[in-house]
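re: ur question from earlier - yeah i can do the single chain one, its not a big deal. heres the input i used so u can compare w yours
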Amino acid sequence: MLLGSGGLHVPADTVSDWYCIRANTYAGKFNNKLSIQFSRSRQVFACGKFEIILKSLAYFLIAGLFEIGGGYLIWLWLREGKSIYFALMGAIILILYGVIPTFQPEGNFGRIYAAYGGIFIVMSLLWVWGIDHITPDRFDIIGGLIAMIGVFVIMYWPR
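and the output i got, formated as tokens:
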């Protein structure tokens, strides 16, 4: 790898491992090099950060399943008289829920948890629909869409 005024230069065969690719020549010569410019704060969607966004969303979904699932097990124990083992399993799952957001590829604690709030809203509505068999109404759907717009603005909008 070489550092040049045009950005970080790597051989062309490693390009698939990098994001935010801008091909150009270095000092007027191609020499089988591509100029890779990292732009974590700009051109999020245009730069090919799609894999990072998918990974981030996957961690949000896993965290949501753990939070809602763990909370549901405790709900069953307290509200429906299930065994204490439901509560213990729920508590373990909720502890794991607290660990999962630390795997987020980008962002800081506050921003990740703020964005996760929107994911939690949508996943809770899906839980109500799938587990409790209550169909979300149009206001639930509109609210969920607004929450998801907030997630994408907070986590993935170019800064």
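Confidence is low (pLDDT under 50) at residues 1-5, 7-47. not sure if urs matches, ping me
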